[in-house]
């Protein structure tokens, strides 16, 4: 009996992991655009974004959209390590959460939580079939992320975020 229970729990956990993977990768993507000073830029992307928006009348509502920050990839391993460990502190704060956003006529306002700090965000969005593509900028200082600099190149405070999530039923 104990062995059967253990196997069933194992199967349930595997199913939950598969479901999370499907939910996180279905039609979702996030891109974080970072400007460098004195010049240059880079983007970090991830498909590990879970959640969807819902249409309610003439509004779109998104709640509890979760990004696994440990999956962000800029294409340079050392930069990714610094971004995750030193600035986002993913060992302590592995997720970013859009707590809630409400959009109407291409504009939205919401609350984003990063590093356990909540900040208001505003931006624009467009609907493309059953997907919403949203954009907003936010200062890193709003989330108490320390100023990033390496070998004379620094990161500008404002970052641009692009998000693509599905619209549920």
Structure description:
The protein has 169 residues and is of the alpha+beta class. The protein has 2 helices and 11 strands, in the order αβββββαββββββ. It has helices at residues 2-25, 77-87; strands at residues 29-37, 41-46, 49-50, 53-56, 59-68, 95-104, 107-114, 117-128, 131-139, 149-150, 153-168. The chain has a 7-stranded mixed beta barrel with strand order 4-5-6-7-8-9-11. Residues 1-25 have low confidence and may be disordered.
Number of strands: 11
Tertiary shape: elongated
What Rg do the Cα atoms give? 18 Å
Sketch the topology as an H/E string, one letter per element. HEEEEEHEEEEEE
Note the gap between the termini.
41 Å
List keywords for this structure.
21% helix; disordered N terminus; seven-stranded mixed barrel; alpha+beta; 2 helices; 169 residues
Topology overview:
Layout: H1 2-25, E1 29-37, E2 41-46, E3 49-50, E4 53-56, E5 59-68, H2 77-87, E6 95-104, E7 107-114, E8 117-128, E9 131-139, E10 149-150, E11 153-168
Parallel strand pairs: 4-11
Antiparallel strand pairs: 1-2, 1-11, 3-5, 4-5, 5-6, 6-7, 7-8, 8-9, 9-11, 10-11
């Amino acid at each position: 009996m104990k062995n059967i229970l253990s196997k069933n729990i194992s199967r349930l956990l595997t199913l939950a992991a598969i479901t999370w993977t499907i939910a996180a990768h279905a039609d979702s993507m996030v891109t974080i655009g970072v400007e460098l000073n004195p010049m240059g830029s880079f983007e970090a992307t991830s498909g590990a974004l879970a959640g969807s928006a819902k249409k309610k009348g003439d509004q779109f509502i998104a709640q509890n959209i979760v990004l696994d920050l440990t999956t962000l990839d800029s294409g340079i391993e050392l930069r990714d390590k610094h971004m995750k460990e030193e600035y986002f502190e993913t060992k302590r704060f592995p997720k970013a959460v859009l707590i809630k956003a409400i959009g109407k006529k291409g504009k939205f306002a919401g609350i984003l939580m990063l590093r356990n700090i909540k900040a208001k965000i505003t931006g624009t969005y467009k609907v493309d079939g059953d997907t919403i593509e949203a954009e907003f900028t936010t200062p890193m200082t709003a989330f108490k992320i320390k100023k990033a600099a390496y070998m004379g190149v620094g990161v500008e405070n404002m970052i641009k975020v692009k998000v693509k999530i599905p619209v549920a039923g």
